[in-house]
Amino acid sequence: MTTAIKQVWVKKSCLGSLSLIFASALLSCGNLPMSQLNLGFNLASIGEVQQKRQVDAEVYLRGKVENRAPFVGNAAYQLQDGTGSIWILTKKELPQLGDEVLLKGEVRYKTITLKELAGKDLGEVYVEEIEQLSRTPATDKGK
Q1: Which of 46, 104, 107, 114 is the most exposed place for a label (fewest CB within 10 A)?
Q2: What's the CA gap between 106 and 87, in Å, rounded?
């Protein structure tokens, strides 16, 4: 069986219109949340990271800074999205409360067991920050 393929030619005037439509579609994506845009990586939800507990997995997270904990040599901040919150361990400057952060990090888990609770694991999943990709200060959101 032979299938004929028909060539389709587009006039140059149509290319300008198609380009305009394509550009308009891209610009209209500004109304979408960043998690729905193709940023070249998969944005994970905090709830998903906590549920899967894939230690050493590289993840990208976006959320709002809800809490801060400075330590000597390190620091941590709590990041929250619509699915939950998680602590982010960083060696860099702490973001301010209310800042929106997009980061790349590695999932970690710290086991905490107590004899009094029959060895029950009270550990917690956290993320070690590799790179902070963007930060929107809380003061810039009203602009």
Answers
A1: 114
A2: 12
B/e letters for 53-88, b = 16+ CB within 10 Å, e = fewer, are: eeeeeebbbbbbbeeeeeeeeebbbbbebeeeebbb
* pTM of structure: 0.67
Structure tokens at 20: 């305009």
Task: Name the DSSP class of 69.
Answer: E
**Number of C-beta neighbours around residue 103 at 10 A:** 21
Strand residues in the chain grouped as ranges (E): 58-70, 75-81, 84-90, 100-110, 124-136
The mean pLDDT values, 10 residues at a time, for the chain of 143 residues are 44 41 37 44 91 93 96 92 96 94 95 80 91 91 57
